[in-house]
Write a structure and sequence with these properties.
NADP binding; binds NADPH dihydro-nicotinamide-adenine-dinucleotide phosphate; 429 residues; sodium; binds sodium ion; EC 1.1.1.3; NAD(P)-bd_dom_sf; alpha/beta; 34% helix; eleven-stranded mixed sheet; 26% strand; six-stranded parallel sheet; Alpha-Beta Plaits; binds the ligand N[C@@H](CC=O)C(=O)O; threonine biosynthesis
Length: 429
């Protein structure tokens, strides 16, 4: 049998996908039954790393998603439009979908999965979260009977690459970002990586699967890494931490979910502290399983294409074994009905690292302690690290506190005469 694929996009991931399909020796035998019928791109004049015949290449993407001979549409364009409309049009034409596009699923998953369920087609997206690491399918299937308590991940390769190089080599932020772009890790608009939006897209998808509810993407609190300085990386190191961009989803026991993305001081003995470069990791905690961690390459051509093609092969396997399209496998499809209630950030409990620049007047540490005490914030450590010109640099790490109480204490501290500025506030795992 031959299963026809329509590729939308032949960039980094599309090229990797075509390469695996065309070079099938020693891989899953089902690959031999997969044919790339069309590949849709923006420009036919670009030199391509992969050779596809001229009649396969097209700029007419609508013709691909409406082609009656195409069984599976593989969306690797990125961005919201035309990706969303093409996916919906493909579904309306009875095509199964494989996509790596977390941005479109995080925002339009509701619309896309409702249409797919109606049409009796699959929308598989293993490549959309943590690139080549199997995490979507394991969460849905292998871990599906657990009550999930938390999903904590380093799920953006670009920012992990940048933070690793800044910490290890003292590299400049802009230089390392350019390297990550060159290596094909970054999004077309890299601010999605750097400002945390890509990780927020991904954690909204993971949380939705782990906790069985839809998540409104716009409700996820999200901070990126632009403000992380060499000073904080060095102080974190001295205090026994590394700085990572974490995506955190916690819930269970009928409580509202908390979902957030922010740079975090991770203790060096924590398993996530050792995840470096473009590698990603997702730490899942559930009952009765306990902890399990998924680790591997989170971006890049081959790694991401591995997940894309595995999803294609999954659908081919189903198509070969059944012709009843209306009975979707519940472990591969999405049947969420309601939206989760998210806990406001002011209600979450976490530790904080805060760096203050203070006028070098007697008793300043005492003033800080009093303000924090007024709001029930207890301190794990207070260190006067050094001086910046004539200002004393003081670093405070709190115990677990409610974020709202901590912010109120900071508002009071900002008004103290002795405080010049508060250059950094970073949560601690
Ligand atoms: N790169 C990575 O490591 C990873 C990427 N992803 C996701 O995979 C998807 C693809 O990413 P990536 O391969 O890096 O992106 P690229 O920018 O490298 O490739 C995009 C491809 O889509 C084509 N394209 C884009 N817009 C249009 C349009 N309007 N009309 C026609 N063709 C269009 C481009 O055509 P042309 O070549 O002619 O310009 C190009 O071939 C994104 O959703 C991304 O988030 C997921 C995991 C990892
Ligand atoms: N830009 C993304 C690509 C994979 O999803 C990343 O850096 O992780
Ligand atoms: Na994945």
């Amino acid at each position: 049998m031959v299963f026809n694929i329509g590729l939308l996009g032949l960039g980094t991931v599309g090229t990797g996908t075509a390469e695996i399909i065309l070079d099938n020796f020693g891989r899953n035998p089902l690959l031999k039954e997969i044919n790339i019928k069309q590949a849709g791109v923006r420009s036919l004049d670009k030199t391509r790393e992969v050779e596809l015949s001229a009649d396969v290449m097209t700029t007419d993407l609508e013709a691909i998603v409406t082609d009656p001979e195409i069984d599976i549409v593989v969306e690797l364009l990125g961005g919201l439009e035309p990706a969303r409309s093409l996916i919906l049009m493909a579904i309306a034409n009875g095509k199964h979908i494989v996509t790596a596009n977390k941005a479109v699923i995080a925002r339009y998953g509701d619309e896309i999965y409702s249409a797919a369920n109606e049409a009796g087609v699959y929308v598989l997206l293993e490549a959309a979260v943590a690139g080549g690491i199997p995490v979507i399918k394991p969460l849905k299937q292998s871990l599906g009977v657990n009550r999930i308590q938390s999903v904590i991940g380093i799920i953006n390769g670009t920012t992990n690459y940048i933070l690793t190089k800044m910490a290890a080599e003292g590299s400049d932020f802009a230089d390392v970002l350019a390297e990550a772009q060159q290596l094909g890790y970054a999004e077309a608009d890299p601010s999605a990586d750097v400002d945390g939006g890509d990780a927020a897209d991904k954690i909204s998808i993971l949380a939705s699967i782990a906790f069985g509810e839809r998540v409104k993407r716009e409700e996820i609190s999200c901070e990126g890494i632009r403000q992380i300085s060499a000073t904080d990386i060095n102080y974190a190191e001295d205090l026994g931490f590394v700085i990572k961009l974490l995506a955190i989803a916690k819930g269970g026991k009928g409580q509202p979910l908390q979902i957030r993305v922010h740079p975090t001081l991770v203790p060096k003995e924590h398993p996530l502290s050792n995840i470096n470069d473009v590698y990603n990791a997702v730490l899942v905690e559930g009952e009765p399983l306990g902890q399990v961690m998924f680790f591997g390459p989170g971006a890049g051509k081959g790694a991401t294409a591995s997940a894309v093609v595995s999803d294609i092969v999954n659908i081919v396997g189903i198509l070969k074994s059944s012709d009843r399209r209306t009975n979707l496998d519940p472990l591969l499809s999405c049947s969420h009905q309601h939206y989760a209630n998210l806990l406001p950030l002011t209600e979450i409990t976490t530790r904080f690292y805060t760096r203050f620049l203070c006028k070098d007047v007697p008793g300043v540490i005492g003033y800080l302690g009093t303000c924090f005490g007024n709001h029930g914030v207890s301190l794990e450590s207070v260190v006067q690290i050094g001086f910046q010109e004539d200002l004393a640099e003081i670093v405070v790490v709190t115990h677990d506190v409610k974020e709202g109480d901590f912010r109120q204490a900071l508002a009071e501290i900002k008004d103290l005469d002795a405080i010049d500025s508060i250059p950094s506030i970073i949560r601690v795992l």
